[in-house]
């Protein structure tokens, strides 16, 4: 399974996100998360899928070295973002029975690893489709209203920061793997199809009271470890075609976001461009002091050769 190590980029994106919230820390009472493995904090533990990460070495750098169901060695991006806003240190998964509505008042995660904008993507590994994440969110709103009262709940819902991060699986686990979508859509048409779903998703969230949204576009998906490992004829460099597809998708997503910002009252949606940051990290890891162990010694990873990653 693909592990998407984008938390570092996300940590940098905090700055961008702070700009969308625009105001002091205490104006974000909660962080609410939708998406895939890049932000899932453990929902897949509780559903009937093979796509889980509740075993070691996942979580080895998390508190207590616990594999929580985050597809990561430690915390995932929303955890860092919530901490930066002074909200809380970790965003709990909605389906985790260790947490109650009392914990969710300040933030909750509905994300599910392996999901996508396309219903057919979540079907591949039997994970939570995006429409179902919204159903859980509606259920959450009802519980929140019962718990803190109508007025306070409305305030939390409208002032909360919503983080949305998905799309990679639509291309890499669905479109390029199975013939079904390729038979019906060119890549460009499939991008439009996904952006249309994202557009509806934003409208739905807005109609439910959400106002501050950060939507993360695609990272250089052609540089993910499995893509490079299988790029035998490309000398294990990044898959340039996949990266191009990601950039095109991001451009369409950004256009949609600026459109809905104009159309929907009080909406402040931000397109979080993770592509450039991740690409930079991949291109010059030494600048970020990223190291690996070689013959038992910690060694900073050298920058890639000119033109190797394009
Ligand atoms: C995805 O499935 C849900 C539930 O069946 C449905 O309401 C929705 O229209 C579907 N989305 C698309 C884009 O087909």
Automatic annotation (TrEMBL):
It holds the Pfam family Lipase_GDSL. The keyword Signal applies. Residues 1-22 form the signal peptide. GO terms for molecular function: hydrolase activity, acting on ester bonds. Keywords: Signal. PANTHER family: GDSL ESTERASE/LIPASE EXL3, OS09G0132900 PROTEIN. Belongs to the 'GDSL' lipolytic enzyme family. This is GDSL esterase/lipase.
């Amino acid at each position: 399974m693909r592990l998407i190590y984008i938390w570092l980029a996300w940590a940098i994106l905090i700055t961008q996100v702070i700009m969308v919230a625009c105001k002091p820390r205490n104006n974000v009472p909660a962080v609410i998360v939708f998406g895939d493995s890049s932000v899932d904090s453990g929902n897949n533990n509780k559903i009937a899928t093979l796509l889980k990460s509740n075993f070691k070495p996942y979580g080895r750098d998390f508190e207590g070295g616990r594999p929580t169901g985050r597809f990561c060695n430690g915390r995932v991006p929303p955890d860092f973002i919530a901490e930066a806003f002074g909200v809380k240190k970790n965003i709990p998964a909605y389906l985790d029975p260790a947490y109650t509505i009392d914990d969710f008042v300040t933030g909750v995660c509905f994300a599910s690893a392996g999901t996508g904008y396309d219903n057919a993507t979540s079907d591949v590994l039997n994970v939570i489709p995006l429409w179902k994440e919204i159903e859980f969110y509606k259920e959450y709103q009802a519980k929140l209203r019962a718990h803190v009262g109508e007025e306070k709940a409305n305030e939390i819902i409208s002032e909360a920061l919503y983080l949305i991060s998905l799309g990679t699986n639509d291309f890499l686990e669905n479109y390029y793997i199975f013939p079904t979508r390729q038979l019906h859509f060119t890549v460009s048409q499939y991008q439009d199809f996904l952006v249309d779903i994202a557009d509806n998703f934003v409208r739905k969230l807005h109609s439910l009271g959400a106002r501050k949204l950060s939507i993360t576009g695609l990272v250089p998906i052609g540089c993910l470890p499995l893509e490079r490992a299988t790029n035998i004829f490309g000398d294990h460099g990044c898959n340039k075609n996949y990266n191009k597809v990601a950039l095109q998708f991001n451009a369409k997503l950004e256009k949609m976001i600026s459109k809905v910002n104009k159309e929907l009252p009080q909406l402040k949606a931000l397109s979080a461009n993770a592509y450039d940051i991740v690409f930079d990290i991949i291109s010059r890891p030494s600048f970020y002091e990223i190291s690996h162990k070689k013959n038992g010694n910690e060694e900073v990873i050298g920058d890639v050769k000119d033109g190797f990653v394009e």
